[in-house]
Design goal:
Blueprint: E1 5-15, E2 18-25, E3 28-33, E4 45-49, E5 52-57, H1 59-72, H2 74-79
Antiparallel strand pairs: 1-2, 1-4, 2-3, 4-5
Length: 84
């Protein structure tokens, strides 16, 4: 399954002229393209689908979604073993 998953931006950098971020998904960190949300900042939550941040999300909504995904085992399905 391939979902859009919320994560928190840890840091932002540019790679070959493309805005990129390190995003934390509840302990799993991935590099994510910020091309679609170039105004996103470190500390904000973004919804990520197939490596692209597609929307900025408020923290409460992100935390609720992550908690629900964890209860359903979806985070493990998407990322493998998720640190606790």
């Amino acid at each position: 399954m391939c979902l859009a998953v919320p994560g928190r931006i840890v840091s932002i950098a540019e790679a070959d002229g493309v805005p990129m971020a390190e995003v934390d998904f509840g302990g799993v960190r991935k590099d994510v393209c910020l091309q679609y949300v170039p105004d996103a900042t470190a500390g904000e939550y973004v919804v990520v689908h197939v490596g692209f941040a597609i929307q900025v999300l408020d923290e409460e909504s992100a935390r609720q979604t992550l908690a629900n995904f964890e209860k359903m085992g979806i985070l493990e399905e998407e990322f493998g073993e998720v640190p606790r």
